[in-house]
Amino acid sequence: IGKQVLNALKGEINEIDYQRYIKQLTYDEAESKSNIAVFRAPNTLIANWVRTKFADKIAHLFEIKTNVKPTVSILIQSTSVQSSVQNTVAVPNIERPGGSLLNPSFTFQNFVVGDSNNFAFIAAKNVSEKPGVVYNPLFIYGGVGLGKTHLMQSVGNVMLSQGKTVIYTSVEQFLNDFTRHLSNRTMDRFKDKYRKCDLLLIDDIQFLSNKNQIQEEFFHTFDALRNENKQIIITSDKPPKKIGGLEERLKSRFESGLVADIQPPELETKIEIIKKKCEINRVKLDREVINYVATIIENNTREIEGILSKLNAYSQLMGVDITIEFARNVLKEQMAEKRSNITTDLIMDTVAKELNIKPSEIRSKSRNSNIVYARRIAIYLSRTLTPNSMPQLAQYFGMKDHTAVSHTMKKIQELMKNDEDFRVKIEELSNKVSVATPE
Ligand code: ADP
Ligand code: MG
Known about the structure:
Layout: H1 2-10, H2 15-20, E1 26-27, E2 36-41, H3 44-53, H4 55-66, E3 71-76, H5 118-129, E4 138-142, H6 148-161, E5 166-170, H7 171-183, H8 187-195, E6 199-203, H9 212-227, E7 231-236, H10 248-254, E8 258-262, H11 267-281, H12 287-296, H13 303-318, H14 324-330, H15 332-338, H16 344-354, H17 359-362, H18 369-385, H19 390-396, H20 402-418, H21 420-435
Parallel strand pairs: 2-3, 4-7, 4-8, 5-6, 6-7
Antiparallel strand pairs: 1-2
Helix pairs in contact: 1-4, 3-13, 5-6, 7-8, 11-12, 12-21, 16-18, 16-21, 18-20, 19-20, 20-21
Bound molecules: adenosine-5'-diphosphate (ADP) and magnesium ion (MG).
């Protein structure tokens, strides 16, 4: 069936894409189930490319044939070494002898430290040096893609290398494991497994919310481990207090060690993270392109690897270097999607917020230099990101006429040309606008 689907895809996409990517795939019948379709690609580039461009289509074609829309999983052919680029592919839930599936590239060395994550980093580092002693549990929380899993697994990798038993699990996996052992009447083994490890990593604990039976079980696991001074690290998208549907006694236990947050990275940190990812994935980008990529990614650093492999794949296919023009072109689509709903109001709000002034001030007649600066930027962004004409913008921003707008455009463009920092700031702002949602 996988073969049929790939054949059907042939009719839907262009010939070149088919030859370059789809033809390279093989369907892995043994690994596939009705709700998961597994394909093998010869390398990460092709795998990533298929995931981003064709996975949806493939799933859809399956659905047409089988009435079930499967998760499409593109794995690397098993002969090759597992790539360090981890993707959203569902990793089959196998219990390894060590009991954990840690990403070997999630290490402290590979973690870029900035103001936004410094506190959590130091906390994790301390825990790795004195597990079970300094803070237990360590509770790390923050938004998607800010490095929570990376940090917790860094501790895991340190301890694994010391021969300790490390378990990395999600709430779902913990729950499945529990249910399985319960129905097999092998709860002893379950308890042995989770209560006799040296380090328990539970990722995304917010999913414990409203699951009473497993909260109970987790509570006992938690106490058993802590009584033995075994380290527990927990991550969540919000602080313990804010997790709804969670027993009070669990909340208070989560708060009893150290609660550390991770904030969205500053631009500089983003740039460093990109450099790091380039190094790990052996992608060569010059400074200008790195800065540009930094402005496209929002807070979610997960996007980075996707972008890098996209750039890399394109440049290899076309046999050209990754210049800034090239990067802009390749990533245009990505930006266009984000930019479909932008209004002048939204731009004004975003700019005002960023520059710490009131939105109404932007449209005022004030000559205060901060406000003039903000107004110019808002005009520039409105002109580049919305379909408004210059006369329309002149009216909106209370300027004399369209020549005033055109003058502003020239000023900003000139500044951007001569001052790279400024350009990066503008690009970052324009990306902020692109993902902002009107309130
Ligand atoms: P979270 O668990 O918070 O959603 P992850 O830990 O999965 O985020 O991080 C997403 C991606 O971003 C990973 O590839 C991770 O290595 C990378 N990343 C995030 N923060 C950093 C950082 N400070 N330094 C290096 N890589 C980072
Ligand atoms: Mg995570």
